[in-house]
Amino acid sequence: TTSRKTHTVTVRFGKKEKLIEVDTDADLRKSLLANGIDVYTLGGKLRNCGGGGQCGTCLVAIDEGFYRTNPRTAREDHLLYDKPDEWRLACRTRVNGDITVRTKPQA
What we know:
By secondary structure, this protein is α+β, with helices and mostly antiparallel strands. The protein is 18% helix and 32% strand.
């Protein structure tokens, strides 16, 4: 049998913190939503693209372990050109190690 490697994602939202376990190469947006963590502001709830990487509403900040995620995609670079380097689209972020994430950094 093949054992799947999991990683701990520490999620900070507001003054709260939650630990979740995700598989290697997990889609961060899907993992957060599956664990009951809201990634969208009110406007994002109304106009998000459902994880297609087109709208830029699922913003997160990778506060620790940025190098344990895949590199920013060209689409992210386009949408986030004026944002800090640690800001990512959750739908385009793959988890490859333990990380700390802050949801809604723009709020």
